[in-house]
Amino acid sequence: MRSLSIFTVSALLAATFAVSGCSSVKPWVKPYERDNLADPVMSLSRHGKADSYMHHVYQARESARGAEGGSGGGCGCN
Amino acid sequence: MKASIQSLAVAGILACLSPLAGAEAINVPAPDFTLESRSGENLRLEDHRGEVVMLNFWASWCGPCRQEMPLMDELYSQYKDLGFTILAVNVDENREEAHRFLDKVPVNYPILYDPESSVSELYEVQAMPTTVMIDRDGNARYLHYGYQPGYEDEYEQQIRELVRE
Amino acid sequence: MAATDRRQLVRSGCLLLALALFGHSAIAATLPVDNVDVLYHRYDGGGMVIDGPSVLVRKGIGSQVSLSGQYYVDSVSAASVDVLATASPYEEERNEYTFGVDYLHDKSILSLGFTNSTENDYEANTVYFSVSQEFFGGMSTVTMGYASGWDEVGRVGNDSFSEEADRRNYQLGLSQVVTRNSLVGVDLEVVTDEGFLQNPYRQNRYIDPNDSTAFLYQPERYPETRTSTSVALRALYYLPYRASIRGEYRYFSDTWGINAHTVELGYVHGLNQHWTLEGSIRFYSQNEADFYSDLFPFENSQTHLARDKELSSLSGTTLAAGAVYEWKQTSLPGIDRLQFSLLLDWLNFDYDNFRDVTAPGDYLPGEEPLYSFDALVTRASLILEY
After folding, report:
1. C or N: which end of chain B has fewer Cβ atoms within 10 Å?
2. Which ipTM was obtained for this model?
């Protein structure tokens, strides 16, 4: 299925990207510069289960499904 | 000049160390710096030569920092009479945030302000929080990236070791 | 007698809860904090009122594992257009349980979970697994997820009726910090379903061969497989006075011929250290499935037949507003942080080729007014971190 092979290729690319370690490009936003990103107003999903409930409301009435989530950003601690 | 080369060396080592490691054992001179402290006066790292210094970088927006600070306060009261001190460098851009946080999580050890991140850059801080254990000769001996419950035991072990030197 | 919307509700509910859980497993290389999340949700519109509680409890074990359990209920009281057209108003309840484990190792979080959803004529089970990995100095997060579901479709009033439907979800996401004030994300998701994908109660209509001013009903017939792909792009930007704007676009396409676009824009405004206000607007549009028609010319005119309004050509608009109260480092015993949110969403759906057969007045088949409805969704949530 074409959509699955696109998916596999993307997954492999992302995995390769993830595995590559110390390279010539250094992270340009330092861990101590994450204060704005750590602010709750910049949270991708701040309302806990209330946010996933809304996806459920739309899925029950619309044909589209998927790619609703998102994780990352935040304080980048540890 | 020599200090900046040394700083670069430390920074280089600190930077290339794998961020995947929770703690590292090293032995390089800790770069000197001067920052304004909570008590109003400027504090300089060199002035603490002869003491074991636990240099900690923290911010009000950092969850793990919140967890470790009360535990650090306990270590401070336990070991401060043995020639040990904590210098906690706050990296908040806005000092108010740090104060509000300290109202809720009071600690007794010195707090230094680094709003322009000059010391954070000097030490090439790679994670929040970061802790550097500096011995009585001013050498950075242990590095900790991040905080997980249980790290405070390592901190205590290392403090006891360095205090005895 | 049960209605048509419910099928979608349940199936999508389970599917969705599993999917949504992917998005919540990692904020950074730290496990989610221990908390209790209590939500009251209410959907009121289109002749339906569905409300109920959701209670989630999360607890960490040691420094590397976090367990969570959730109980969710949909109490349905329905007299929607589909129900009124072919059945009678009903009341029903759907119960859903979810258990999850998150494991932190270095910069990765592995999550495993299971969801079971039950109502009197539908049972859905889902297992999901996801890995979230942070790298590049914490600036990038990659998430990969997989979910597998198996459903049993029943039929009220017919104990021997039992069909199955299986689902598989494959999810890939990348989140990237661009500047100290901005974040972008890309998400890709492929979903495949197989089995009994239609609704055992819903009917199509076709023109009565003996009377062209009337129509007759026959049960719907869907294909036995469906594969869909969704790609979403999102961006957030921090505004210097403690606010943020965000935008999202999602493209959806499936093997039933449906293509959909979703655009959402949101604004969050921090008033002070406790209160935040937010608002958003969302636009949605889709075209109809290949085998959809509001009115078929005669019985069995196609191999596959659908009159489900969810598969029609439609557009939707949502206006949302909310207020969040946050109390950090509370003086309450045992509570580290408290967050209360009140969120209101007004949804409006307009159908381009689904007609309201219950509309008062005398209409020839195919000339009834096009259907549209609006609904108000209320969410009141309390999160306590302990």
Report:
1. N
2. 0.90
